[in-house]
Design a protein that fits this description.
alpha+beta; Glutamine Phosphoribosylpyrophosphate, subunit 1, domain 1; Rossmann fold; six-stranded antiparallel beta sheet; 19 strands
């Protein structure tokens, strides 16, 4: 919903203004720069108005404490009821963070349910924290004897700072006692216990999914949905279409004749959404490539490739809505990647790998989704990464996620079926041909792979397709050209570190 900058023990409002101007795309609705009264802090905030649009401006000030936050607190109404409505001065969901802190409850931050990053300052103390999986970004750097916080790396570009580091997912920094982990992802279950009722598991999963989507649609504006035509985005869009008090808007992109566009149209017709699509070409990809890399803040080949269709989808959606639902997280929760098939006979290793990949999302797919959507002033929401859903999904045995199946059976995509229990849970929601269709990567299904090959030749001036090393070198060159201090960006940038490991027999 926004971007922010916070300076602690650095009394330079002009610096805060300079830093926040570099991330102004995150919040075009309002910009505020505030110096603390009695506290050595300057906070700057650029706002995308989604909840409490009339009076939800930030920073939020209360009794000498100052707060700036990014994201959404989905249980803020419950927190208001618990903390006392009379304490609140705005309709902003973020204000609940401030009052929870002031309540003195020892594990106050664990009460927050949502996606968020925030910095909270008192007269003597600065606290910064990030949501459980790092859906929303937060960076910290030292400037002299003070600290600087910001929502994106580019806020620090060209500024004299010590090394910039990300505050990790589920982490809280407190100037009083340093960095600590306030949330740990529960480890995944491995094998089925005797007598497990699989139908009951699928039924409960469906209920938890319904609740997650309903929760993550909370907004005072319309929320749309990305729709690639793949299983994950289709599940989210189908559930949202049932829940929305308006006709849900869905968005699909791809090259002419791509599989994603055709599949998305089929799903949109099935769920009755107000469907929008955009066709892009290789020349379009060549034109936006520097823009994508700059906003992505990474030159990693796999991240850039997947960021390209995300950019076109975000640009399309931003013309119609301020927030969209996505299917991110389903692959990590339910074993949806191709390499997961190699773990079919190793459920303990699969459970471990899924837990590892959940904890690594912040620096790869979640970075891609956040940066590329917010570049278009669009908020992306990830219901599969709802905390209650994560807890339940991690309790489901890995053997129900990557399932040995009969290739000829109806509930199958081959000898091993990825996301089997998820498919079973939504079998009544979507056409059977989609529910049991094999997964395609977003960049493949959208036609990006072929378009990118031609685009790279256009950008580089080469007369033959680039190999992976040359592609990586081109991306790094474009990143270096985009930043004053590119080494700082490259040192902290997200990279795809997926370890496609399978334990030996």
């Amino acid at each position: 919903m926004c971007g922010f900058v916070c300076l602690w023990n650095i009394g330079d409002e002009s610096l805060a203004e300079k830093m926040v101007s570099k991330i102004a795309h995150r919040g075009p609705d309002a910009v505020e720069v505030v110096r603390g009264q009695g506290a050595p802090v300057v906070m700057a905030h650029c706002r995308l108005s989604i909840i409490g649009p009339e009076d939800g401006r930030q920073p939020i000030w209360d009794k000498g404490d100052l707060l700036v936050a990014n994201g959404e607190i989905y249980n803020h109404a419950d927190l208001r009821a618990i903390l006392g409505e009379s304490a609140f001065e705005t309709e902003s969901d973020s204000e609940s963070i401030l009052h929870l802190f002031r309540s003195g409850e020892l594990r106050w931050i664990a009460r927050l349910d949502g996606m968020f990053a925030f910095v909270l300052a008192t007269k003597t103390r600065i606290i910064a924290a990030r949501d459980p999986l790092g859906i929303k970004p937060l960076y910290m750097a030292r400037i002299g004897g003070g600290l600087a916080f910001a929502s994106e790396l580019k806020a620090f570009d060209g500024i004299e700072v010590e090394a910039v580091e990300a505050i990790g997912p589920g982490m809280l920094y407190d100037s009083r006692d340093g960095l600590r982990q306030w949330y740990r992802t529960p480890h995944g279950a491995a094998e089925e216990e005797p007598g497990l009722d699989v139908e009951a598991v699928a039924g409960e999963l469906r209920l938890v999914l319904d609740e997650a989507v309903a929760k993550w649609m909370l907004a005072d504006v319309e929320v749309g949905s990305f729709l690639s035509g793949g299983l994950d985005s289709s599940i989210i869009a189908a559930l949202a279409a049932r829940l929305a008090p308006y006709r849900l808007k869905t968005f699909a992109v791809g090259t002419e004749g791509s599989a994603d566009l055709a599949a998305a149209r089929e799903v949109a017709a099935h769920i009755g959404s107000d469907h929008h699509e955009e066709v892009f070409t290789a020349r379009d990809v060549a034109r936006v490539l520097p823009h994508v890399i700059y906003h992505l803040e990474s030159a990693d080949v796999d991240l850039v490739r997947s960021a390209i269709p995300t950019h076109f989808a975000a640009r399309l959606a931003a013309r119609h809505v301020k927030a969209v639902l996505t299917g991110e997280g389903a692959d990590e929760l339910f074993a949806g990647y191709t390499y997961h098939h190699g773990y079919a006979d190793h459920p303990h290793e699969l459970a471990q790998e899924l837990t590892r990949s959940l904890n690594a999302m912040h620096n790869i797919n979640l970075q891609r989704v956040d940066r590329v959507t917010m570049a278009e002033s669009l908020e992306a929401r990830t219901p599969f990464l709802d905390r209650d859903l994560i807890d339940f999904a991690q309790s489901i045995p890995a053997t129900l996620k990557m399932r040995r199946t009969d290739p000829e059976a109806r509930e199958s995509t081959g000898p091993t079926t990825e996301k089997w229990i998820l498919r079973k849970a939504v079998a009544d929601l979507l056409p059977e041909s989609l529910v049991w269709r094999k997964k395609a990567q977003f960049d493949e299904g959208s036609g990006t792979v072929a378009a990118l090959e031609e685009a790279l030749m256009i950008v580089s001036g080469a007369d033959a397709p680039l190999d992976r090393a040359a592609e990586a070198a081109l991306y790094e060159r474009l990143l270096r050209e985009a930043f004053e201090t590119p080494e700082r960006i490259l040192a902290a940038a997200g990279t795809w570190e997926s370890e496609e490991r399978v334990s030996a027999e």
